[in-house]
């Protein structure tokens, strides 16, 4: 397979590889910087990124926006010439504030999913930051492109197509996340490519389409790019078991130890299905812990949910695995050892290495 750089407007990554955003605290400056240094695109997750700031409980928004800028600055020191950006969930409360802060901090790229980022261009107006929606269907891709065209006279700079084998919150029903035929989703990818192509022609620019969800091996990369026609891939799970990943050792060990049958679809407190490792925390029935509100998700109702997803994900980020929600992709069970980011990049793209 001939490896072409991933060109996003004037941005160029030597490898057509995006490291997926993982929160809370799993993809921060360490991992994103290492991936960008290796030639890919490094993404920092903004999800409760400031949980270690001293005023987080009192002012989560202020703490998160402050930490956002700090993490990008640290990643730039690792990869001064690399392509770096943020993953920002649409479901985030005060979503627009995060987008504005990320663009103002100097992000090269913002990738946005967990909802439809129909107003992403409005919040990033006036900055050169490239904008990329995450979609899981041609319906979503068409709607976003149509609204960006009508409201803001623009089109995405990149489109990420995330499949049902991804980790964390999913853009599918629980049934589809478990049983959607691979052929059906691959047909959907072709429809998305066709839809994006039309807007690329209208705006006279290349709009790369990147496939995500379940990309773990060089065979997955080759299939996505040669057989499906993608311009690149987004990879997350494979990077968790690297030395550079910001996750604690206990989190990485959970990936190394998990069996295939222990990876399950669970319902998030805000009603979205998500893929995670079955552990003691998920096995506890009923209300798992007192619910405090950290102002994370727009549609969360603290009085109605079984547990606080921020607390559960912070527990994961701090290594308290029995009390943690451990998000992962469908292929986490394939993890066998701790690697380095350059080793992963070379394995996924042996021609480049």
Q: What gyration radius follows from the Cα positions, in whole Å?
A: 19 Å
Distance between the termini: 12 Å
SSE string: EEEHEHEHEHEHEEHHEHEHHEEHHH
Largest sheet, described in full? 8 strands, parallel
Q: Determine the structural class based on helices, strands and strand pairing.
A: alpha/beta
What does this molecule look like?
The chain is of the alpha/beta class and 353 residues long. The protein has 13 helices and 13 strands. The strands form three sheets. The protein has an eight-stranded parallel β-sheet. Strands 9-13-12 form a three-stranded antiparallel β-sheet. The chain has a two-stranded antiparallel sheet with strand order 1-2. The radius of gyration is 19 Å and the shape is globular.
SSE layout:
Layout: E1 6-8, E2 11-13, E3 17-19, H1 29-37, E4 41-45, H2 60-78, E5 83-87, H3 95-105, E6 109-112, H4 120-123, E7 130-135, H5 138-152, E8 159-162, E9 168-169, H6 174-179, H7 182-202, E10 209-212, H8 218-227, E11 232-235, H9 237-240, H10 249-257, E12 263-267, E13 273-277, H11 280-283, H12 309-317, H13 341-348
Parallel strand pairs: 3-11, 4-5, 5-6, 6-7, 7-8, 8-10, 10-11
Antiparallel strand pairs: 1-2, 9-13, 12-13
């Amino acid at each position: 397979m001939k490896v072409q750089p991933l060109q996003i407007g004037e941005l160029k990554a030597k490898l057509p590889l995006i490291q997926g955003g993982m929160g809370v605290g799993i993809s921060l400056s360490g991992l994103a910087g290492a991936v960008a240094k290796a030639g890919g695109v490094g993404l920092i997750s903004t999800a409760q990124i400031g949980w270690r700031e001293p005023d987080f409980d009192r002012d989560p928004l202020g703490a998160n926006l402050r930490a956002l800028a700090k993490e990008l600055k640290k990643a730039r020191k690792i990869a001064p010439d690399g392509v770096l950006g943020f993953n920002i969930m649409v479901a985030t409360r005060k979503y627009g504030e995060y987008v504005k802060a990320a663009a103002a901090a100097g992000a090269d790229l913002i990738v946005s999913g967990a909802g439809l980022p129909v107003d992403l261009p409005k919040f990033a107006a006036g900055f050169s930051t490239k904008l990329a929606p995450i979609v899981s269907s041609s319906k979503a891709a068409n709607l976003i492109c149509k609204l960006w065209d009508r409201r803001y006279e623009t089109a995405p700079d990149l489109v990420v197509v995330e499949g049902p084998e991804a980790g964390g919150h999913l853009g599918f029903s629980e049934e589809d996340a478990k049983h959607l035929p691979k052929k059906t989703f691959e047909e959907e990818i072709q429809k998305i490519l066709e839809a994006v192509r039309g807007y690329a022609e209208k705006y006279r620019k290349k709009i790369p389409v990147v496939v995500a969800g379940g990309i773990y091996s060089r065979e997955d990369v080759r299939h996505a790019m040669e057989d499906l026609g993608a311009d690149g891939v987004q990879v997350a799970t494979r990077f968790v078991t690297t030395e550079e990943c910001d996750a604690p050792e206990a989190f990485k060990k959970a990936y190394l130890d998990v069996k295939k049958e222990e990876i399950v679809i669970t319902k998030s407190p805000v009603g979205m299905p998500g893929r995670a490792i079955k552990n003691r925390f998920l096995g506890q029935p009923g209300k798992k812990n007192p619910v405090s509100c950290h102002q994370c998700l727009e549609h969360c109702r603290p009085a109605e949910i079984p547990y606080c997803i921020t607390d559960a994900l912070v527990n994961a980020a701090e290594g308290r695995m029995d009390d943690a929600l451990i998000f992962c992709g469908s292929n986490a069970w394939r993890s066998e050892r701790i690697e380095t980011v350059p080793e992963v990049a070379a394995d996924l793209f042996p021609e480049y290495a």
